Amino acid sequence: MCRKLISGLIAAVAAASLAGPALAAEHQVAVADYRYSPAELHIKRGDTVVWVNQEKRTSHSILFVASGEESERFFPGEKWSRMFPAAGRYEYRCGPHPEMLGVVIVAD
């Protein structure tokens, strides 16, 4: 009986190790009507956020308030993405339109 139990445990451990780490997810934020939707996004460490400009004529950027990091401007139909390797709160706004506010909250 012990051999069966040990064999079962070994098989379970082997199967779990073959599964590998969980895949990172990709999340989308729409940029339309001079706002981000959703304006607050909760993700996990390692996930990627893709901002998609759905405006008809206006370009936007993503400017992270704390670090000053800013994307290039992206025009209607274009997108910009960033992966978040560390947990934390990442507040951002649009460079040319500072009234546009958003936040990405990254959990471990």
What is this structure's SSE topology?
Layout: H1 2-19, E1 26-32, E2 35-37, E3 40-44, E4 48-53, E5 63-64, E6 79-83, E7 88-93, E8 101-107
Please characterize this protein's 3D structure.
This protein has a 4-stranded mixed beta sheet, with no helix packed on it. Strands 3-8-7-5 form a 4-stranded mixed beta sheet, with no helix packed on it. It has 108 residues and is α/β, with parallel strands linked by helices. It has a single domain (23-107), classed as Sandwich (Immunoglobulin-like). The model is unreliable at 4-20 (pLDDT under 50). β1 (26-32) and β2 (35-37) form a beta hairpin. It is built from 1 helix and 8 strands. It has one helix spanning 2-19; strands at residues 26-32, 35-37, 40-44, 48-53, 63-64, 79-83, 88-93, 101-107. Helix content is 17%, strand content 38%.
Proportion in β-strands? 35-45%
Task: Tell me roughly what share of residues is in helical segments.
Answer: 10-25%
Number of strands: 8
**CATH class designation:** Mainly Beta
Shape: globular
CATH level-4 homologous superfamily = Cupredoxins -  blue copper proteins
Mean pLDDT: 87
- Low-confidence segments, given as residue ranges, are 4-20
- H/E topology pattern: HEEEEEEEE
Corresponding CATH architecture: Sandwich
Q: In DSSP terms, counting alpha (H) and pi (I) runs of 4 or more, how many helices? A: 1
- Return the structural class: alpha/beta
Number of domains as seen in the coordinates: 1
Return the CATH topology: Immunoglobulin-like
Report the radius of gyration as a whole number of Å.
Answer: 20 Å
Strand arrangement within the widest β-sheet reads: 2-1-4-6
